[in-house]
Amino acid sequence: MNTIQTCYSPALFPLFKEENAIVVVVDVLRATSAICTAIHHGVDKMIPVAGLDEARKYKAEGYLVAAERNAIKQDGFDFGNSPYHYIDEDLSGKTIVISTTNGTQAIEAAKDSSTILIGSFLNISAIANWILQQERNVIVLCAGWKNKFNLEDSIFAGALGLKLIQSGKFNTVCDSTIAAGYLYERANNDLYGFLEYSSHRNRLKDLQLENDIRYCLTEDQMETIPVYMDGGLVHMSKFEVVNP
Ligand code: MLT
């Protein structure tokens, strides 16, 4: 039997670290949904960076760079954090550097882990199915908001936790996974409605980004799983060539 745990903040991740565990990083609204969409639509690699200074250095070297802070695309960069920026066949085969308020901070916190998957509602069943073929423990790392708890990443953790536990191959002794499961059971008939009072749904709503929210809350739109390899996020098929 393998275990699943849920870490609600990158700041807490050192408490959860476990050798050989699979870490699923999630920032439903919107960084990991945008990364899944980009890789699914043919972007070759996304290089996550935590700081804007590092992002600027890549920009000066001629890279395509996405940079978002507080849900707003930063001046001088090519893209923001909307998944819709990455549904563009001209980006096929390209490398894009990305820096976001929370999502890339969570990836940075996890970066020494042996396997890091990028999760979202868009690819949640693909993630669960891939994990079920491994014999390894799982930690869901919620990006949250500036190291604080958020609802949308937590309901993702609950949804994934329930899928794994209901398979009979996983159990949990982690109260945060149990709590996340309860939240998902409350939310699951209407994820958008459940988030009515959540801070980031309202932040995005104020910026007229409701289409982004609805898209990011749509389950199972793709089989694509981005995975961290050699400092970048690539399609799982590339990772599996190196780690069969
Ligand atoms: C982040 O990484 O903090 C988020 O994805 C913020 C956003 O919605 O742009």
What does this structure look like?
The protein is an alpha/beta fold and 244 residues long. The mean pLDDT is 96. It starts with a strand and ends with a helix. It contains eleven helices and eleven strands. It has a single domain, classed as Alpha-Beta Complex (putative 2-phosphosulfolactate phosphatase). 39% of the residues lie in helices and 20% in strands. 49% of the residues are buried. The structure holds D-malate (MLT). D-malate binds at residues 27, 29-31, 68, 71, 81, 100-103.
Q: What is the overall shape?
A: globular
Mean pLDDT: 96
Number of domains: 1
Distance linking N and C termini = 22 Å
Name of the top-level CATH class = Alpha Beta
The strand count comes to 11
Low-confidence stretches: none
Q: Proportion of β residues?
A: 15-25%
What structural class do you assign from the helix and strand content? alpha/beta
Share of residues in helices: 25-40%
CATH topology: putative 2-phosphosulfolactate phosphatase
What is the radius of gyration computed over CA atoms, rounded to a whole number of angstroms? 17 Å
